[in-house]
Amino acid sequence: MKSLDHLKSGQSGRLASVSGDPALAQRLMAMGLLPGQPLVRRQQAPLSGPIKIHSASSVIALRTKDAACVVVNTQCP
Amino acid sequence: MPLADPAVRVSSPKLPHDGLRVVVIGQPNTGKTSLFNRLTGLRQRVGNYPGVTVERKEGRGKIGDTPFTLIDLPGTYSLNALSLDEHISVRALAGHPDIGPIPDVILCVVDAAKLQRSLLPAFQAAALHRPMVLALNFFDEAAAEGWKFDLPLLEKKLGIPVIPTVGHKGVGIDALKKAILRAYEQDLTMPGIRWPEPIEQAMSLVEQRLVSEENAHIRRFKAQRLLFDTSHHPSDLDNDSELRKKLLEEAHTIILNGGHHPANAEPVLLFPQIENALEDCTEKTGAVSERLTERLDAAFVHPVFGLAFFAAIMFGVFQAVYTLASPLMDLIEAGTGWVQDLVGGWLTVTPMLQSLVSDGIIGGIGSVLVFLPQILILTLLIALLEDCGYLARGAFLIDRSLSWCGLSGKSFVPLMSGFACAIPAIMATRTIEDPKSRLTTILITPLMSCSARLPVYVLMIGAFIEPRYGSIAAAATLFAMHMLGPLIALPVSWVMQKKVLKAPSPPFVLELPPYRRPTVRDTTWRLWHRASRFITDAGTIILAMSIVIWSLLYFPRPAALENTVRSAFVTESVAETGQSAEQIEAALTDSESELAKNFEVHLAGAYVEQSYLGRTGKWIQPVFDPAGFDWKITVAVLASFPAREVVISTLGIIYNLGGEEDEESATLRSKLGNEIWPGGSRAGQPVFTLPVAVAVMVFFAICMQCGATIAMMTAETSWRWAWGSFVVMTLMAWVASVGTYQLLSRIL
Q1: Kindly report the CA angle at B112 between B224 and A51, in degrees rounded to 5?
Q2: Distance of alpha carbon A59 from alpha carbon B26, whole angstroms
Q3: Residues A72, A4: contact at Cβ < 8 Å?
Q4: Mean local confidence (pLDDT), B137-152
Q5: Confidence of residue B361 (pLDDT cuts 50, 70, 90)
Q6: Which residue has the higher pLDDT, B41 or B298?
Q7: Closest to B20 in 3D by CA, of B63, B52, B57
């Protein structure tokens, strides 16, 4: 279990849970990112900018502050 | 047997009076707009929903003989209204006095390759029990990716027509139209969602209290939204907020006790149902190859090359707006002048009417049209960047540099465009979804030093800095003037976002859509919409203001003034040239003579001094005295409030050089340099010293002297924000120019 901002670029896992503002979880779910869905962490924008993640149904970017609320299970890819 | 009325055709159900009302819902990036454009063609109307900055788009069309009105709702990821856009969509679906009655048909647009996630809004709207049609858009892309669909089975499971479409290529449009009519006539609706027992129980609890809603389906839809929405926009459902709070607490407790979480129960429970509906209907074949999008992203969001490319693109956009537009603007200005001369020639008999028509009205229309080239060029470039998917990457790259002051990467393009012109820049803020950061971006955009401020800088730097301190100091001053805006704007934005609007900085989830080729058709539509909105919304206000300012500069016009000025002028000329008064008078009657032209200029100057605006300038001068401004600079400042670019020609008129001066004019520069204070504490000293020149530049850099910007802000936000920021910027400009003058005159 790791928060998304601690994943290395290219590392994948499955979405475990989302804490913090409930709006974040709702937005992610509306974009097809539900718990259990696989995702891959990709590039980060310069100066610790947003982090890009790929899932089956979308490519989205999250600020580090929000990415820290997203917990990923890296054990089952 | 009763006689059948031949006028009443037996058709079920009866069509509404003005045709079908169809609303289009769908997630962002599903190609909704292309489909909308194809379905309606030329018959479109764009406006705002009352009181909010969400764009309202309506179009008309026909299915056979049946007319329909299509309402394009903003892209909504979910009907759980997190954003104002989504809130508008919920209101439009459930019917609202501000928006319109409940739609007859709901057209839901989904991305065929992302069917599961893009079906969420459709499943959320199922409770409404309205006829619905599903458009599987980007069907060709999905097929190329290896998706296969069993459409008849999907139609059967969902209960509504499912039409494959490729909106930007116009594929499936006729089938879609027929399906809309069919869904209406046969009342094809999605089956209601079956919720687990505790949710059902909580929902009926809320439903029972929504007594004012007569339609049972809408009552259920509203109950569903009340139950699951986390951010309630009040006023909507129940007037008694205390009662609602208690009711919802009770309902949420039931849900929690049932083992669900109210904040995420809806998507968590709906997605398995969506999956269930899609089972056996969709199949993905072929290996997942690395898509074009990922390969392009490797370059475009690269920390080094990506940023370099972004800088190059932004520089290119800025250059294009700055340079490509100027020949067109010159052409419009020349055209305006030509029409002014032509029409003015017809009205020479009535000088006041002549001046009203040619200076007030035609000049006003010209000052509206002159913005069109910049608007069209910027809109075109942004439309291309947005539609091909690059704009979201740019926002991704630059987000960090703007997030500290409460903005996001999406504010960058409008702010940068503001350096060319605030008008297209304010229009460009429409790509920012978050209403608060959009508002803040609109408010700080006029602080960016637009190209109309350049003449003031060039005049002042050319007259007072370059001759004395050299070209390097001149360039540095010019650069500093351009940096002043952002230097003030970003802290202002921080104050706005954190202190005034108290924007909670919601989680920022930016979708990076696949790269796609923009289409000529949709881009042209967008250009047309922007241009027509600018002319109808801002254009009318600009025209009205230019007529008001014209009259303030024209009236009063005492008949005696001409004679007074004439005799003073003759006396002066006699003294200067040594000719007799008769010779001078004779030369004045020949309107082509040098002397007569010189007199006209003097007379114009005298009229300006006499006008309401001129008098106000003299009267208000003490206010600007701490900044070192004399009454002439004050009048020039006042006359520039509707449009700062008139400052040079106003100075020309006041200094009796005629209105044709430009910023490079040597005569105007020397005239400014020779100006002496006539009295007061500074009597005998030159008016234009270095501190005054810099104070004038600082004033122009900060002040919102642009009626078009105020009009644009009024159209995009409200008159309160527009005039509020006008007042604030004027005060800031005054404080900054007084500070500059006081500081510089002490240290220099």
Answers
A1: 80
A2: 18
A3: yes
A4: 91
A5: confident
A6: B298
A7: B63
Q: In which domain, by residue range, is A8 found?
A: 2-73
* Proportion of chain A above pLDDT 90, given as a percent: 31
Span between the terminal Cα atoms of chain B, in Å? 106
Higher pLDDT, B240 or B335: B335
Q: Are B261 and B255 in contact (CB under 8 A)?
A: yes
Tally C-beta pairs within 8 A across A and B.
120
Domain tally, chain A: 1
- Selected residue with higher pLDDT from B647 and A74: A74
CATH of the domain at A7: 2.30.30.90
Contact at 8 Å (CB) between B709 and B426?
A: yes
Per the prediction, chain A carries an average pLDDT of: 88
**Which of B267, B400, B513 comes nearest A46 by C-beta?**
B400
pLDDT at B37 over 80: yes
CATH number of the domain at B197-273, out of 3.40.50, 2.30.30, 3.40.720, 1.10.287? 1.10.287
Location of structure tokens 């704007």: B489
pLDDT greater at residue B452 or residue A31: A31
Backbone dihedral angles phi then psi of residue B116, each to the nearest 5 degrees: -60, -50
CB B444 within 8 A of CB B493: yes
Tens digits of residue pLDDT in B168-180 = 888 999 999 999 9
- Number of Cα atoms under 13 Å in the Cβ half of residue B227: 34
Compute the C-alpha angle B205/B209/B213, nearest 5°. 120
Which of A20, A34, A59 lies closest to B512 in CB terms?
A59
- Cα–Cα distance for residue pair B221/B663, rounded to 1 Å: 64
Residue B121's pLDDT is: 93
- Are B618 and B630 in contact by the 8 Å Cβ rule? The answer is no
Nearest CB to A30 within list B78, B297, B510: B78
Beta strands in B73-120 (DSSP E): 105-111
pLDDT of B444 reads 94
Amino acid at residue number B496: M
> What counts of helices (H) and strands (E) characterise chain A?
2, 6
- Domain boundaries along the sequence of chain B: 20-185, 197-273
- Token duo for residue B270: 């709906």
CATH 3.50.50.60 is held by the domain B20-185: no
Q: Do A24 and B396 touch (CB under 8 A)?
A: no
Please state the rounded mean pLDDT for residues B689-697: 93
Chain A residue numbers touching B271 (CB-CB < 8 A): 29, 34
Per-residue 3-state assignment (H helix, E strand, C coil) for B590-608: CCCCHHHHHHHHHHHHHHH
For strands A70-73 and A12-18, give the pairing.
antiparallel
What's the start-to-end Cα distance of chain A, in Å? 12
Residue from B76, B282, B512 to probe the interface with A (highest A Cβ count within 10 Å): B512
What does pLDDT average to over chain B? 84
Closest CA to B496 of B551, B452, B438, B556: B438
